Amino acid sequence: MKVPFSYLDRQFANLEDYLADLREFVPTGDFTLGEPLEQFEASFAKLMEAPHAIGVGTGTDAIALSLKNLGIGPGDEVITTPNTFVATVGAIVQTGARPVFVDSTDGYVIDVTKIEAALTPHTKAIVPVHYTGNVADMPAIMAIAKARGLHVVEDACQAIMGAIDGKLVGSWGATAAFSLHPLKNLNVWSDGGVIVTHDDALAAKLRKYRNHGLRNRDEVEFYGVNCRLDTIQAVIGNRLIPTTPEITRKRIANAARYDAAFADLGEFIKIPVRRPGVRHVYHLYSLHVQRRDELLAHLVKNGVQAKIHYPIPMHLQPASAYLGYKPGDFPDAEHHSRVCITLPGHSYLTEDEVGYTIEQVRKFYRP
Amino acid sequence: MKKDRPKIPYVDLARQHAPLKRELLTAVEQVLDHGGFILGPQVAEFEAQFAKLVQVPFAVGLNSGTDALILALRALGVGPGDEVITPVNSFVASASCVALVGAKPVLADVGPDYNLDPAAAAVAITPRTRAIIPVHLTGRPADMGGIMALARKHKLFVIEDAAQAVAAHYRGQPVGSFGDVNAFSLHPLKTLNACGDGGVATTRNAELAEKIQILRNLGLKTRENCVEWSSNSRLDTLQAAMLLVKLRHLEAWTEQRRANASFYRERLAGVPGVQLPDDPPHLRSVYHTFVVQVDRREELRDFLLARGVGTQVHYPNPIHLQDCAKELGCKPGQFPVAEAQARRILSLPVYPELTEAELETVAKGVREFFGA
Question: Less Cβ around it within 10 Å: N or C end of chain A?
Answer without folding.
Answer: C
